[in-house]
Amino acid sequence: MRIVAILALLAGSTLANAAGLSAQDSADIQARRGRVGHMGGSYSYEGVGFSTVSAQAAIRNCCYYGKRTPIEIAVSRGSNGWYACVRYR
User: Fold this and answer.
1) What does pTM read for this prediction?
2) pLDDT recorded at residue 51
3) Which uninterrupted H or E stretch holds 77?
4) Which pLDDT tens digit goes with each residue over 41-79?
5) Segment 6-31, tens digit of pLDDT
6) Is the pLDDT of residue 40 over 90?
7) HSE, side-chain direction, 13 A CA sphere, residue 46
8) What is the enclosing helix (H) or strand (E) of 27?
9) What are the distances in angstroms from CA 41 to CA 18, 22, 77, 78, 87?
10) Which residue range(s) make up the domain with 4?
């Protein structure tokens, strides 16, 4: 089962980067592959994270979390845990 959560999306932000992927797309790809990794694109700041504990823990494990302003947050449940992607200003 996949848990999907877009927790933050501020007005004026875009859902697609240069590769055409939203944060949710990135999280889904990571979960499908079973590996944490950046998908590329035009975002200056993107953090990816993983946790076997919870979706919130995966988000907290993302680079820049708590240091930059998120504009898009997504989580997807994989077979071995939660995968997160956070895009920042």
Assistant:
1) 0.77
2) 98
3) strand 70-77
4) 667 899 999 999 999 999 999 999 999 999 999 999 999
5) 333 332 333 344 457 899 999 999 99
6) no
7) 21
8) helix 23-33
9) 5, 10, 23, 23, 11
10) 1-81
Name the residue among 37, 34, 32 with its Cα closest to residue 19: 37
End-to-end Cα spacing for the chain:
31
Pairing state of beta strands 70-77 and 45-51? unpaired
**The pLDDT value given to residue 10:** 30
Read off the DSSP letter of residue 60. Answer: H
Structural domains of the chain, count: 1
Contacts of 40 (CB under 8 A, 6+ apart): 17, 18, 19
Q: Looking at the domain assignment, is residue 86 inside a domain? A: no
- Which element (helix H / strand E) includes 26? helix 23-33
Is 89 inside any structural domain?
no
Q: What phi and psi values does residue 22 have, to the nearest 5 degrees?
A: -80, 170
